[in-house]
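Researcher: Structure for this, please.
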Amino acid sequence: MSTPTMPPAAPQSVNENTLNISDQQVSQYLAKHPDFLVRHPELLADLAPLARPTNGGIADFQKYQIEQLQRTLNTLRAQQTDFFNTARDNMLTQQKIHECVLMALEADNSTDLIDIVLNDWPQHLNLAAIQFCLENDHAGNVWFDEDLIVALEPGSVNRLIGMKHSVMLRPLVHGDKAIFGGMAQGVRSDAYVKIQLDYSTPPGMLAFGAAQPGSFAPGQSVELLIFLANVLESSLRLWKALEN
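Model: Predicted structure, C-alpha cell format:
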C-alpha cells in the first residue's frame, strides 16, 4: 500500500472536516518528510505542546516550540539592545550638538566664531577636523578673516555635493587635501553640508571629517549636521550686521 501524500494547502475558508485526513496519514507523511517542520517552522507556533517527552524516535514538538520561542526571544532582546543603544547614542550626540551651539553663541566676533567652529567643535564632537569652505569668487564680499576658510574654485560646491542635494555623506574615504589640508590623512569618513550666507556671498560648505570609517554614510539622519550649518550661517549673518 503506497503512502498517501498531503494535499495542497487549502485556503483558510475551507472547513478542515472536508479534508478528511486521518492522524495516521499525518504521521506517515511526517515520518516520510522529517524536515517538514524545518521547512515550515511557523507551524510550530500553532501546535499544542506535549505534556511529556515521547520515545520511539518521534519528534518532541514541545522541544521545537521552546527552541523557537528562545530564538524569538533572543532576537527581540538583541533588537531591544540595539534600540536602546541607538537611542542613547542619539541623545548624547544631540547633547553635544547643543553644547556646540552654546559655544558659538559665546563668540566675541566673526573671527572668534569661525575659530570655535574649526577648533572647538571637532574636539567636542570627537571628529578629526571641520573646515569652512567658500568658493573664491567673492569679489570682496567676505567680511570675516579669509585666512580661516578654505578657498574652492567656483562651482566646486555643486560639483562635490550635487545641485539637487544639500548634504553628501561618504563612509570610507581618503581625506581630500584640498578640503582638510594637513589633517586629511586622519580623515576616513566625511560629510559636506552646503552653506549660503547671503545673496552677495558665493556658495560654501561645512566639511566634517571623521577618523572612524563609516561615521558618515548614506541613509543616516542629517538633521543635526544641517542644524550646525544653519547655526554658522545665522551667526555669521548677525556678525556681518554688527561688524559692518
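Researcher: Any notable elements?
Model: The first strand starts at residue 129 and ends at 135. The two ends are 101 Å apart (CA to CA).
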